[in-house]
Amino acid sequence: MAEIxxxxxxxxxxxxxxxxxPGLHRSVPLFRQTYGEIAVPLEAVAGVVLEPERKRGRLRLxxxxxxxxLLQATGGRLPDAADPYRLAVDADRTGVAEYxxxxxxxxxxxxxxxKEPVKAYLLPGPPVPVSVRSSDGTVSFDGxxxxxxxxxxxxxxxxxxxxxxxxxxxxxxxxxxxxxGHEDGFLRFVTRETxxxxxxxxxxxxxxxxxxxxxxxxxxxLVATAVxxxxxxxxxRPAPGDEAVDGTGTRPTHSRPVxxxxxxxxxxxxxxxxxxxxxxxxxxLTDEEFAMTKAAVLRGF
Length: 301
Fold this sequence. Notes:
Elements: E1 2-6, E2 9-13, E3 17-22, H1 30-35, E4 38-41, E5 45-52, E6 56-63, H2 69-74, E7 86-90, H3 94-111, E8 130-133, E9 137-141, E10 145-150, H4 156-161, E11 164-167, E12 171-177, E13 185-191, E14 207-210, H5 214-217, H6 220-230, H7 263-281, H8 287-300
Antiparallel strand pairs: 1-2, 2-3, 3-4, 5-6, 6-7, 8-9, 9-10, 10-11, 12-13, 13-14
Helix pairs in contact: 7-8
C-alpha cells in the first residue's frame, strides 16, 4: 500500500485502485468535499505525474478518455482547486508523492493498461438522488428524470413555464460551463426537440443560468455528472448536431406525450399560456422566444 496524506486530501494505492479522499480543511473546495471519495480502478488510469512548483509539488492523475463521467460532463473546465485528480504536495513530502506515482506507473506497466480511449465509463459518478440549489433555481435528478424548479429571481419566461421535468430518455446530452465569478456559467439539458435551440441560458427553459455564488453554482456539476453517467457513452453517440437526423438525412419524428387528464392541469396550462401571451404582447418575449417557450409549456403537459 502506497499512501500520501496532505491538507488537500489523501491518495492511497493498493495495486488495483487509486482511492482519493478529499481533505476536511476549509481550504478544500466545497465541490470536492461534496463529491466525496473517488475510487479509480487502475484500468481507468492513463498516467500520473508529479509537477514541481515553487514551494511545493502537485500530483496529477491522468485518466483515459471516456473513463470518467465527471471529466466528460465538465470537459476539463473544473477550476484547478476543485479538480479531484490533483493533489497539492508539501515540499517535504515530494519524495513520498514520487514513490506513490512510481508504484502506479509500475502497476500500469505490469498490467499492460493501454492509454487509448475506453468505450464505457469505468467510474460510476455521484449517487442519486442528487439535488443542487443554484442561483437560477433548484435542479434535481433521481436517476430517471431531471426536475428544475425556478427561483424567484429567474427570468419571467422561465417562471411562466413552471417546473421543468425532463425524462432521461428525452435527453441527448448535458452541457455545463462553470460560473467563474467573473463570467456567468450554465447547465443546459439538450433534448431531441431542443438540440437546435439558440436561446441564451437566461431565457432557455431547459437551462440554468449560473450567475450567483461561484462556490455554490459549481455543485451543479454533480447533477451534470450524474446525468451524463446514465446517458449513452460518448463513443456510441452521433456527433453534436446530428442527433435529430436519421440515416436517410432527415429528422425522425417523435411521438408527443399525451397531456395529463384533469381540469387542474387544464387550468394551469391556460394560465401559463395567458402569461406567455402577455409577455409577448408587452415586448418582453420576441416571436422566437414566445414560440419556443409556448412549445416547452405544451410539451410539459
